[in-house]
Amino acid sequence: MWSAESSQSMRISTVSVNKSLSIAKANQSEYCTVKSSEFHGRITINTTEISMKELEKKYQYLKAGGHYIPQDCKARNRVSISVG
């Protein structure tokens, strides 16, 4: 059974998540332009070890879980990359 305190905490976290999503959507009024020069086909994978700090610095624009949301436009497509 949920106590009143835990139920209220859950509600607060849900509101904060929804608020951040609506702010991101409000900034995206136009679709992003297609940048065909960024499509490369097969690429050579760099297998050099890199520290977690270096990765975090290099990809600081990524959200939790590796998600990326353009700041000034609405993405035309969604992409999923699976490595197995």
TrEMBL record:
<dbReference type="Pfam" id="PF13733">
    <property type="entry name" value="Glyco_transf_7N"/>
</dbReference>
<feature type="domain" description="Galactosyltransferase N-terminal">
    <location>
        <begin position="32"/>
        <end position="82"/>
    </location>
</feature>
<dbReference type="InterPro" id="IPR029044">
    <property type="entry name" value="Nucleotide-diphossugar_trans"/>
</dbReference>
<dbReference type="InterPro" id="IPR027995">
    <property type="entry name" value="Galactosyl_T_N"/>
</dbReference>
<protein>
    <recommendedName>
        <fullName>Galactosyltransferase N-terminal domain-containing protein</fullName>
    </recommendedName>
</protein>
